[in-house]
Amino acid sequence: MALQQLVCRFNLMILLFCKGTLTIRLTGSGSTRCSGRVEVYHNNSWGTVCDDGWGLNDADVVCRQLNCGTALKAPRSAHFGAGTGQIWLDHVTCSGNESSLTECQHSGFGSNTCEHGQDAAVICSDLIRLAGSGSTRCSGRVEIFHNNIWGTVSDYNWNLNDAEVVCRQLNCGSALKNPEFGRFGAATGQIWLSAVTCSGNEGSLTECQHSGWGNNYYGHYYDVGVICSGMIRLAGSTRCSGRVEVYHNKSWGTVCDDGWDLNDAEVVCRELNCGSAQEVPTSAHFGAGTGQRWLDHVTCSGNESSLTECQHSGFGSNTCERGQDAAVICSGERDVGSSNECVTW
Fold it and tell me: H or E segment at 294?
């Protein structure tokens, strides 16, 4: 039988009921339709998810399951307040492509040694996402959620200003390119926007001028995309080891190694889907960078979902030399293995 979904909204909580998949909701202090503490329904009761290993791939599955776009952040440490009752899941490990959180590996329902101070959460993009062939978290075909349907944007007048708004909305840095002509593949179904005209300073693509919802004369061959810079990269070695560089004010810069430790490196490795931090080389171990030195005195607890969430001395505020560039050596890509079967009741 085809999968049937019923979406209900109650007091800023969204519930998704799917046959053969897990019922899930976002709740807690300050929660919205697409951000909050993750709770799952199992054995006739709601319970939370422990944040051991919780990252953007796991949050991405939750956001997609709730029709909330893509994950912007994966807050830990009860960011939206501590839940009560059961803690149902721990050590959740998703590839990011699963359709339900229970398809991800986990330690088993109720099997954990956690406190509610470790409740996991998500902050989703809500009404926008990147999709298509070859897409990543920060590059892909632009899709908008309107009238309970995902649809695309036509490339009439599409430029870097428009792409800049999308990248910023998705917490993906600045726009590097604004691909047209279905660069990430042609979608099907609705084409929502055309003739989009942004100044580049808007907080959301829907704040820009456009021709009206569904008012267009083009086919999906003209679906637009974006390629964003992202916010962090490793340089000078491999994908999961190297000199740490962050993107700010439209340029890449390094991180000074004052106080640099495993907690800081852990955040970088998790943000890049590179497993856990193994070493924290200092003194420009992978060579000295060029240009800006963006961060210094970075202090992370290790639970942040992005390096820029950690305390630091302020962008560009430092007294460092080139020989002090910080680096990380991560364990490598997370091993997501095979998925568990869905739970039914």
Answer: strand 292-295
Question: Is the per-residue pLDDT at 338 higher than 90?
Answer: no
Question: CA–CA separation, 47 vs 26, rounded Å?
Answer: 11
pTM, two decimals, is 0.67
13 has a pLDDT exceeding 80: no
Q: What pLDDT digit, counting tens, does each position of 57-76 carry?
A: 899 999 999 989 888 888 98
The model's confidence at residue 154, banded by pLDDT at 50, 70 and 90, is: very high
Q: Which domains does the chain have, with CATH numbers?
A: 5-124 (3.10.250.10), 128-228 (3.10.250.10), 232-330 (3.10.250.10)
Q: How far apart are CA 192 and CA 147, in angstroms?
A: 10
Contact 243, 232 (CB under 8 A): no
Amino acid occupying residue 310: C
Beta bridge partners of 32: 35
Do the Cβ atoms of 121 and 79 come closer than 8 Å?
Answer: yes
pLDDT band at 41; cut points 50, 70, 90: very high
Which residue from 52, 57, 49, 64 is spatially nearest to 18, judged by alpha carbons?
Answer: 64
231: nearest Cα among 85, 31, 17, 56 = 56
Rounded CA-CA distance 236/242 in Å is 5
- Please name the residues in contact with 140: beta carbons below 8 A apart, sequence gap of 6 or more: 129, 130, 131, 132, 134, 184, 225, 226
Angle at 176 between CA 173 and CA 177, to 5 degrees: 130
Pairing relation of β-strands 241-248 and 327-330? antiparallel
pLDDT band for 225, please (50, 70, 90 cuts): very high
